[in-house]
Every structure is written in C-alpha cells, then in structure tokens.
Amino acid sequence: MRINRAKIENFRLLRDVEIGFEEQTTLIVGRNNSGKTSIAELFRRLLSDRALSFRLEDFSLGCHECFWTSLVSFRAQQDSSETLGQLPAIKLVLDIGYDVDAADLGPLSECIIDLNPDCHEARLEFRFAPKANALQALFVDLTEPLEDPEADRARLYRELGNRIASAYAGSLEAVDPNDPTNRKTLEPKILSALVGGGFINAQRGLDDDTFRERDVLGKVVEVLFQSALTDELDPTRRSTAEQLKEAVDQIQGDLHIGFNAKLTSLLPTFDLFGYPGLVDPGLVTETSFDVDKLLATTRACATGA
C-alpha cells in the first residue's frame, strides 16, 4: 500500500499541481519559490496532532481574486447560491494503491467504496472549504463599497485575515475513483493513521524560531487577555482588553504605512538577485499584529531579590 499520486489546489505556491510518487524514493528538486516547501508544509499540517487550521496567506495568490469576485456578487445578490461556489478552497486529492488480494488493509478498508473488482486504488479528498454560512461570516459588514476601489480591496483582505477561521472548515471524504459523485465522509484524523512519516527541518538562520517554546508567562497573559475580551460579567476588564486591542491596531496601521514605503525603495536590489521570481509579479507587505499572540511571545518576567 502506497501513495501513487497527489493533486493539490490553491495552497500557497501550488495553485494546481499533480505529483506522482515512486515506489521507493521520490526526490523533489526545484528553484526557490517553486513549491517544494509548500508540499512539505501541507502534509505536515494534515498529519500533525494539532488542530488543523489555515490562514488567508495559505491560499495561493492566484485565487485571492476569487474572494473579491465573491464580494462583488454578494453585494449584487446576497442570497445567491452561485456566490458561495465562487469562494476558493484548498484541496488535496490522494490516490492510494493497494493489493486487492491482501488479507487485511487496516484503516484503508474504510476508504474503499467502489465496487469495481479491477480497481486497485482508493481516493481520498481533503478540502478546506467555505461553510454554508461563509458569505455572511466574511462579507456581512462589507456590503457598502468604499469610494476608493483600492481601499475597498485592502479592507476586504484585511478583514479576511480575521474571518477565514470561522467561515471555513476542513473535511475529508473517500471518493469512488470510477464515480466522483459516490462519496463517504471520513474523520480527517484517519490520514495520520494511513500515512506515516516524519519531518527533518532545515536550519534557517534568520527565521529558525518556528518551533521555539513560548514564554510561560506569555501563555498566562494570552489566556488572561482572551478571558477579559469575552468577559460578560466585568465590563471594566472587557473595556481594558478592547482598549489594548485598539492601541495595537493603531500601531499596526502606522507601521504598515512606514514599512511599505521603505520596502519599496529596496525592490530594485531584490530584483538583482532574481527575487521575487517568475511567478510573483511584485512584493507588497501587509503588517498585521495578533494581540494575544503578541502578548504570548514578547512578554517576559523578571524578579528581584
């Protein structure tokens, strides 16, 4: 039993990619920004024990326009079912080959739903797709366009960063390779039972803090902030938390304007080194601070005797 093929759509640099796997070893080689890390990161998330989550930045740049198209359609007709279908989804399709004469296929047996005796592949399809109420969750307060079209777009993508998690959900289905309409819903955790593997992380000098443990006090402050923000009994605590969030939002806006201006002056230098590359027409930044994560990763405690 092994993975024969993987088809990935709308995840980072993998807009629409199909990969074939060799029986023993598959080596993926490519230039920078060609999608090698994107492949590893997608499998890392799907096979991780942590809760599965994706952000706006995980969607391929090429499908970001779909969010704008959906908003335009939503403004014209809010109850249209076609508008929901315009929203992009991250998708992974795995074709897993197996021996039809095997006595026990283990957890893969739950994924085999076809009745064709000559078929020796099971197909799994994972989707991070919009929920039924996604249009309201994403666009409910964006129905009135701003006078400046560029500002209107910027507002949309800024808000999407905070709303994707509540408007989207992950799902896993077994699909009949001979009939795509024949499907069976599965628990996403079955992937980790089917696919075994480990990851060796490359050393990256400038950003090698991905797996650094956060400060213990920072975790406590993060929990206190979240608790105060949702406290229905003590308006004083909630007000303090909201003021803290507003202060960070103001800093975020000021930093975004200044940093973008300075970065633009460096773009000719980046171009000399071949960056951003053939698939990226330019480099634009969007400064964003997550208040609770900011508290968790930057707070330190010192005690004196």
UniProtKB/TrEMBL annotation:
Does the UniProt entry include the keyword Metal-binding? no
Q: Which InterPro entries match?
A: AAA_GajA/Old/RecF-like, P-loop_NTPase
Query: Entry's Pfam families?
Result: AAA_15
Domain (Endonuclease GajA/Old nuclease/RecF-like AAA) spans 1-98
Under the heading SUPFAM superfamilies, the entry gives: P-loop containing nucleoside triphosphate hydrolases
Coiled-coil region(s): none
* Domain of life (superkingdom): Bacteria
Supply the alphabetized keyword list.
Answer: Plasmid
Q: What is this protein called?
A: Endonuclease GajA/Old nuclease/RecF-like AAA domain-containing protein
- Organism of origin: Sphingobium cloacae
The organism that produces this protein has a lineage beginning with: Bacteria, Pseudomonadati, Pseudomonadota, Alphaproteobacteria, Sphingomonadales
